[in-house]
């Protein structure tokens, strides 16, 4: 292990290439994540805007979060994140798309849900973390797609979820296995908080 940090780890793998040569590949391990396209009856999606230090900007995103609780299903995580980040609960859930964010070097995979039949709920207090100053906004789905095409929404997870929702994709059942979900970090950590070292 080259690095073991709360939300990522880095390992070096030795890989036999198709031509028979051997190469070293550094792989960023990740816990995996979920995101939610929360779509109301008026055809609006709930977007959140938060500061992302890696790019030094506030980005428009979908409510999302890490699969960082041992034993938590993807749907349980999505319900928790929707409440924590957007102050919403949903009666209807489906799987829109599963994506691998940067397969050239990182095993992060994200399950993107669609949530409908929404109601407002209380958000838990977040006085000291990055969600404390998060902005929430309802945006018509078509306007959100226009924001993607104008380069105003650049988070890849949000782009994939919004375009899938706008296309009218038929959601898959939430029981469909998330076969891409990373397991290496979670298996090494005793939990229940998988970010704890």
TrEMBL record:
Residues covered by the Nudix hydrolase domain: 29-161
Single GO MF descriptor: hydrolase activity
GO biological process: nucleoside phosphate metabolic process; ribose phosphate metabolic process
Pfam families assigned: NUDIX
Presence of the UniProt keyword Transmembrane in the record: no
Gene Ontology cellular-component terms listed: cytosol
Span of the signal peptide: none
Keywords: Hydrolase
InterPro entries: NUDIX_hydrolase-like_dom_sf (IPR015797), NUDIX_hydrolase_dom (IPR000086)
Protein name (record): NUDIX hydrolase
